Amino acid sequence: MTKALRWAIPLAIFIVLVAFLWVGLGRDPRQVPSPLIDKPAPAFRLSKLQTPDETLASGDLRGTVWLLNVWASWCVSCRVEHPLLVQLAQQNVVPVYGLDYKDQPDDGRAWLAQHGNPYTASIVDRDGRVGIDYGVYGVPETFVIDKTGIIRYKQIGPLTEEVLQGRILPLVRELQR
Amino acid sequence: MIPEIGHFALILALLVAIAQSAVPLVGAAMGEPRLMAVARPAGQLQFLLVVVAFACLAASFVGNDFSVQNVAANSNSELPLRYRFAATWGSHEGSLLLWALMLSGWTCAVTLFSRHLPPVFLARVIAVMGLISVGFMLFVLLTSNPFERLVPPAAEGRDLNPLLQDPGMVIHPPMLYMGYVGFSVAFAFAIAALLGGRLDATWARWSRPWTTVAWAFLTIGIALGSGWAYYTLGWGGWWFWDPVENASFMPWLTGTALIHSLAVTEKRGAFKSWTVLLAIVAFSLSLLGTFLVRSGVLTSVHAFATDPARGVFILTFLAIVVGGSLALFAYRAGKVGLGGVFGVVSRESALLANNILLIVAMASVLLGTLYPLFLDALNLGKISVGPPYFDAVFYPLLAPAVFLMGIGPLARWSQASLPTLWTRLRWAFGVAVVAALLLPFTLGRWSPLIAAGLFLALWIATSSVVNLRDRLASSHQTGLLAKLAANSPSYYGMLLAHLGVAVFIIGVTLVKGYEVEQDVRLDVGQSVPVGGYEFRFLGVQPGPGPNYRAVIGTVEVRKDGRLIQTLHPEKRIYNASGQTMTIAAIAVGIGGDRYVSLGEPLAADNLGGAWAVRIYLKPFIDWIWGGAFLMAIGGLLAVSDRRYRIAMRRRDASLAAGSAAAAAD
User: Do both B6 and B135 map to the same domain?
Assistant: First the structure.
């Protein structure tokens, strides 16, 4: 490399960075077209967080519309959406199952004790295996799964009042019919 | 009426900023003093106009003018006065106006305190700052107008996010922005120097105080934000590697490298192009941080208001400002030369190594922050990078940098000798090693990480003592006070800032090593022992608040059966939004905090039943922020050095001639 070019290295790095940022702008980090939409929810059998002797399998939930909420005690954004889930649980419209993702069960239980437990049950995915099957890339995520075990909607990032009232609950009502 | 005055003042400020940047640049290029002289009054006028605009927005918030959309969305008539004022910068629009205010404030400060600079140079500095102002005010006016009216007006505001209703909100953003935006001065100095083609020790001497002050503010701003997170999020953490935290941390790391690199350029004339590059990068990262926070390319707890259209504007602005300055750097830097020669073992080498480590650390934070975005852009899938990555990469990089802090200040410029350094430092090293190995036993538990952390902190402290002792011993003055007074404030500033790092490391090490966390179910009257203390829960009572309803718990803390304090953790439900907030009760102490927060009620009867209660012991945690404040005070002490003012005046005359020549080319 010639000497003159050496001074242009920072500029070159910056141009690459801007190119990435430009592409990144066109994408919404929260709304990912999941390849799993309208596909069967990947099967799992995991032990429950509160009662580790019991397990829950995806097949057990056939015949009900349910939400799968991926959370973890180390996840900051989960704290933002959690009050919404607690409210939702009090309304008893749809069962919410939690997937405690890459977490220490003790931490997870403590976190629920602290912030309230909206989940019908939480299952423990310590090594993140099931998370990979579900294409989880950021916590929290929420899936809407219908009576036949098909994923119908996926929310990436914290739930908001708008998403819950505007998309998820209408969808749930429709699927429950 | 008031919002319109503010809007109008902001438009005027934009016009003034255009004049402030264009006219002096032309004047500097033509060597026309009258055009250059526009810079200073234009900078001051622009500041005045932005102050008016900001005051109008603040008045709308304070006066509950819900016909202004921004006020209706982010305030509420029940909100206490100080938070109505702070809500001025609680929204996206308002925070950008605060950015513009800070920028014009720094510009005004430059016009006032840099009168001794050569006129060409000063004109260019103010013009460059004017250009940045133009970009920001265009951004505010075109995409994020805070004065937008709401027709028909709202009867009541939607309220400020409860997370932001905190004294931290009043002081943290202004401090942080003072630091963020303050790097624009160093940036403008660097661009002016590149434009004029003169990059030398005097340039570094002019830049140093500005850079150090900005760095000190940034340090305080980050520390305040961290402290705020600690007591409001209700779970005792103090740093989360959140993208927005990283956005403020990257300019800090680069700024830290910059103030050290400037020292070398000032004293030895070395690292010139590197220093200029750092000045550009530090401010570029401030802009990048603004982009990341405001555009929504990354998800974060801080992403209050995001909008891709705004992202396009900031990215374009970023590309022009940073791309332009890096192109100028590529074009000019080769001509300014590298500067002094130095040996492999020398203070220059130590500072260079420190610089490289800091920049690599910054790059690793940048990579971790943007990695999800890179992968996504390449269609390789979406991932999130969490604290495990940062912990694994960051500590190994910073540990050697901290170790060098012990050696650097003692090494001689140009050429030092390792055997001499070893002779001077072996006691400091020995004491630090032995104390670090033994101290963890007295604190409770020995672990290699705790010992390593303590060693680094003690090493900074002992080597600073050696440094001071040698200085005093070689002083020609007689009497301890005279010897102490013979050293400059900047020397003591350096020592103090370095000790701040030591204090910070002690805090981080001990809190990570010895914190105790317990989540327990407590019935009324029940008590639980945690780490030598006994916590007794006396139940909760309802309590009123200005714009929320609260339940207030009472927890008595006893040690050896003696009552030492009563803590009152709270849960609040805000009226306007219905959001819940957990307010921890923290007994602060120099040896550590006792932290109690309320979880959920476990019985149907909220007030009489059991609660989940979270009890933490956080040993030495306040040292983390104490250390940061020492660093900032050290920086301010260094700036108070008389040599900056004297040198400026003395060189005035000789420079005027030189700069006229520089302007001519």
Answer: yes
Are residues B582 and B641 part of one domain? no
Yes or no: say if B624 and B592 are a contact pair by the CB < 8 Å rule.
Answer: no
Q: Is residue A15 within 8 angstroms of chain B, CB to CB? A: yes
- Which contacts of B428-437 are long-range, i.e. CB under 8 A and separated by 24 or more positions? B428/B459, B428/B462, B428/B463, B428/B465, B428/B466, B429/B459, B429/B462, B429/B463, B431/B458, B431/B462, B432/B458, B432/B459, B432/B461, B432/B462, B432/B463
Q: How close B536 gets to chain A, by Cα (Å)?
A: 18
Tens-digit pLDDT profile for residues B538-575: 989 888 888 888 889 999 999 998 999 999 999 888 88
B363 touches chain A (CB under 8 A): no
Question: Which of A4, A21, A74 shows the shortest C-beta gap to B315?
Answer: A21
B316 and chain A: CB distance < 8 Å anywhere?
no
Shared-domain flag, residues B340 and B401: yes
- Residue A145 to residue B79: CA distance in whole angstroms: 41
Give me the interface pTM, i.e. the ipTM.
0.78
- Are the beta carbons of B296 and A28 separated by less than 8 Å? yes
pLDDT at B659: 41
Instruction: Provide the pLDDT confidence category of residue B664 given band limits of 50, 70 and 90.
Output: very low
* Position B302 confidence tier, pLDDT thresholds 50, 70, 90: very low
Q: Examine the pLDDT at B661 and tell me if it is beyond 50.
A: no
Kind plus residue range of the DSSP H or E element containing B285: helix B272-295
Contact B372/A137, CB-based, under 8 Å?
A: yes
B212 and B117 housed in the same domain: no
User: Domain containing A70: what range?
Assistant: 31-176
Q: What is the CATH number of the domain that holds A98?
A: 3.40.30.10
- Per-residue pLDDT reduced to its tens digit, B80-122: 999 999 999 988 889 899 999 999 999 999 999 988 889 999 9
Nearest CA in chain B to A107: B519
> Which residue in chain B has the smallest CA separation from A80?
B301
B318 contacts chain A (CB < 8 A): yes
pLDDT of residue B349 exceeding 50, the answer is yes
Tokens of B417: 């000798």
Query: Looking at the DSSP assignment, which residues form a beta bridge with residue A123?
Result: A48, A99
Q: Which residues contact B500 (CB under 8 A, 6 or more apart)?
A: B626, B627, B628, B629, B630, B631, B632, B633, B634
The mean pLDDT value of chain B amounts to 87
CA distance A60 to chain B (A): 29
Any CB–CB contact under 8 A between B374 and chain A? yes
Tell me the CA distances in angstroms from B125 to B192, B356, B369, one per residue in order: 6, 28, 32
Tokens representing B614?
């979270």
| Mean pLDDT across B419-444 | 91
Give the total number of structural domains in chain A: 1
A1 in contact with chain B, both atoms CB, cutoff 8 A = no
- Identify all chain B residues contacting A104, using CB atoms and an 8 Å cutoff: none
The boundaries of the domain holding residue B161 are 1-165
Query: Is A32 part of the contact surface with chain B (CB cutoff 8 Å)?
Result: yes
pLDDT at A67: 93
Whether residue B323 has pLDDT greater than 90:
yes
Q: Tell me, yes or no, if A59 comes closer than 8 A to chain B by beta carbon.
A: no
Residue numbers of A between 109 and 138 with CB closer than 8 Å to B? 110, 113-117, 137-138
- Residue A51, φ and ψ in degrees, nearest 5: -130, 85
Residue B330 near residue A106 (C-beta atoms within 8 A): no
In a domain, residue A139? The reply is yes
Q: Is A14 on the interface with B (CB under 8 A)?
A: yes
Q: Are residues B277 and B360 in the same domain?
A: yes
Flag if A114 and B296 touch (Cβ within 8 Å). Answer: no
Q: Based on the structure, what is the number of domains in chain B?
A: 4
For the segment B39-75, what is each residue's pLDDT rounded down to a tens digit? 999 999 999 999 999 999 999 999 999 999 889 888 8
